[in-house]
Amino acid sequence: LETARAAAGDDASVVAVGLSTAGPIDPESGVYDHPPNLTGWHGKTMKPALEEALGLPLWISRDGNLAALAESRFGPHAGAQDLLYVTVSTGIGGGIIANGQMATGARGGAGEVGHVTVLPGGPTCGTGCDGCVEAIASGTALAARARKRIDDGEPSAMLDMVDRDASKITSRTVFEAAAAGDALANDVLDIGIRHLGIALGGLLNVFDPEVLVLGGGVAHALEPYWSR
């Protein structure tokens, strides 16, 4: 808050605070609704405590929503009226700008693109969605698939990278092994990329955005593999 006030200068004042957070979350009450990547936060809210501590009204939205809004206001895509933002990281989420406005849906859930089904009967994500793209192409899913296949007996240099303890394999391990030519790691990435592409293709057909922005650590790490 002190940084915001300093940036505003002597002739301006801070009138409200915006909070970007993982979801799902009710934007009005700030109450979390079974957030898969925020263990223990279901049914809880930090909004009243923060408003009291800051002495300012607090506006809360999912990180994907606010990332989409930021992309439409700043940087190379400033001014975009119809923009789709997808983040691929620990989980997969997103945000939608339609006709220059942030689309939030009836209950604040618009933009939860990670729960688009791409493989019926496939693995489930942290919220229990069956075969959704988050359960197949997120960083968490890539690491889980690699660990399972190694536990099932498939050979991989990834084991040597984690002192023969498959439980230590992360998405970073998968990417590093793939870059070094490991067959299992590359197959894990191929599966993730293929299903992420299916999800993105469907989203482009549904929303017809003028620009699609990909963000998140896994999305950036996947850049060398898009030609697959």
Described by strand count, sense and barrel closure, the largest sheet is:
4 strands, mixed
Strand order of the largest sheet: 5-4-3-6
Work out the count of structural domains: 1
Gap from first CA to last CA: 45 Å
Average the pLDDT over all residues and give the rounded result. 91
User: Tell me, what is the CATH class?
Assistant: Alpha Beta
Stretches where pLDDT is under 50 for at least 5 consecutive residues are: none
Helix content: 25-40%
**What is the overall shape?**
globular
InterPro entries: ATPase_NBD, ROK, ROK_cs
Protein name: ROK family protein
Organism: marine sediment metagenome
Write the layout of secondary structure elements.
Elements: H1 2-8, E1 17-21, H2 47-54, E2 58-62, H3 63-73, E3 83-88, E4 92-98, E5 101-103, H4 134-137, H5 139-151, H6 158-161, H7 171-179, H8 183-207, E6 211-215, H9 217-221
Parallel strand pairs: 1-2, 3-6
Antiparallel strand pairs: 3-4, 4-5
